[in-house]
Specification:
Length: about 180
């Protein structure tokens, strides 16, 4: 696969916080590219495919479209999650699918296929559990403010926490660790 047009505008292939110190000077596309590298640690091919989807959606949506909503569609169930506030089962399924990329499993503190377990928990509690379990393995679960009854987010390498914060701020994405959901 080829790199995005104007490769020099997107920086190197790893998001480095020092490279992002001037994130407010980068183009939206360059910031999106950096975010995609962060949510796809070590998987540039997936980042490139998602970047292509993002660019197509951005072209169709026009300049008024918020990047986070275009990203949501480009990364859903591959590098990110977006679930209804009461759909604990879909949250578990989505995050389970996301962590398979790194051959990880999450101990949810109960049987995720048990209806009693699902009835006695909610997405924020599950998000906090996933956050804690992933931190133990060097990953961070993030959630962004959807402004709705839904929860959205993604997972990055914990060593990229500062870079993720910088990119999110530059893209006007209100982002929190999964331990502190919206």
């Amino acid at each position: 696969m080829n790199m995005p047009d104007n490769e020099a505008d997107y920086g190197d292939h790893e998001a480095d916080p020092e490279d992002l110190d001037d994130a407010d000077e980068l183009t939206t596309e360059a910031l999106v590219w950096q975010l995609l590298l962060l949510v796809n640690p070590g998987d540039e091919e997936t980042a490139l495919r998602q970047f292509s989807h993002y660019r197509e959606a951005a072209q169709e949506a026009g300049e008024e479209a918020e990047p986070v909503w275009l990203l949501k569609d480009a990364i859903d169930w591959t590098s990110g999650f977006f679930v209804d506030w009461k759909d604990s089962e879909s949250f578990i399924d989505s995050v389970t699918e996301l962590v398979r990329r790194w051959n990880l499993e999450i101990d949810w503190g109960g049987d995720p296929s048990d209806e009693d377990f699902l009835d006695n928990t909610d997405v924020p509690a599950l998000m906090s559990t996933a956050y804690d379990r992933l931190r133990e393995r060097g990953y961070t679960l993030w959630t962004w403010d959807t402004g709705s009854d839904n929860y959205g987010g993604w997972i990055t390498s914990s060593r990229d926490d500062e870079a993720m914060r910088l990119v999110a701020v530059a893209l006007n994405i209100e982002l929190r660790p999964g331990s502190d959901s919206f």
